[in-house]
# Entry
Amino acid sequence: MPELIEQANDLIESLSPYTIIGVFVAFALVIIGLRQVLKKPVSRLTAFSSSTGSVLVSRKALQDLIRQACLKDDWVEAARPVVKIVGEQINTNVSLRLSKADHLRETSERLQNRISELLQKSLSFEQIGPIEIMVSSFGKSDVDELIATETESVNEAAPLVGESILEPKPQALPSPSSDSPAKLPERD
Amino acid sequence: MESQESTIETGELSEGSLGEIKVNHTVVSTIVKMAAINVPGVLAVGGNFVENFIAQISSKESDKGVRVSEDEAGNYQIEVRVLMEYGVELAKTAESLQMIVAKQVTNMTGKTVAGVDVIIEGVKMADDETIEEKESEND
# Structure
C-alpha cells in the first residue's frame, strides 16, 4: 500500500502543471457532459391531447406567462414566479416588488385571480393548485417617501438632539431584504 | 419511429415510373417552421438554449425546434417547440398550429401527418421592450 502511494506521488510530481490543469479540465468536462446526459427531462405539463397530437407547456412558459401577467399590473415593479408541477397540478409561488405599500392586499388578490383565470382560460388547466403571492419588497419611490415621512416625525418628536437621530434607519423600513415578507393566505 | 438525427434520413414521397422522389426530413422541418411562424400568436420556433446551440454548431439551422420522424406506416410524426405571444389563447393557438402544420406538410409532401405535438417553450410580449423598460427603470 505505501508503495502505491509512493508511485502515485512520483507520478504526480513527474507531471507538468499544464498536464495537471488539462486533466482537471477534462474531468470537469466529463462531469458536465454526464450531467447533461443524465439530467431529468424538462418538466412539462400536458394542456390537452387529441388525435392530431398533444400540446405541452413547459414550466418556463408558465413562469413567463405569470410574470408577464404580473408586470401588466400598474403596482408591480418586478415579479419572479416559481412554478412547480406536481403530478398534473400547478403550484405557483410569485415573489413581487410593488411600487407602493398602500395597495398590497388588493394587488395581491387581483394577481391571484388574474393568474388563476389565465391558466384556466388560456390553457384550459383545471387542476390549479395554490397560488402564493409573496410581497418581498417595495419600490424605490415608496421607500424614499417613507424615509421623508419618518425623518419628519423624528424631527418633530426629538428636535435638535443630534444629527444622527435625524438620519433615517434603513431597518425601520419595509426593506427589500426583509426577513418576513408580507404573505397572503394560500388560495384554495 | 425513426429520429431525424441522421441527416441522410429521408421520407419516401412517391415511386413513379421515372424513379423515386424522396423528401429529406430537414425539408419537412423547414416547411413546419415556415408554417408555424405564420400562425398568429406564434412568435418564434425554437428549442431551449442547449438545443439551439447544438443546432447552430451542427449547421442544421432549419431543424431548430422541429423534430420530424416517421411511424411504422410511414406517416410523419412532428414535434414543434414554439414561443408564443402573451395575450393569445395558448391552447387555441396551439390547436390551430397543429392543423396548419399538418395541412401544409401534407399539401407540400403528399404524405399524411400522424400527429403534431406542440411544446410551448416560452411566452413573450410581442413588444417585450415595454416590460424590459419597466424593469430597467425600476432597477
Q: What stands out?
A: The radius of gyration of chain B is 17 Å. Confidence is low (pLDDT under 50) at residues 1-9 of chain B.
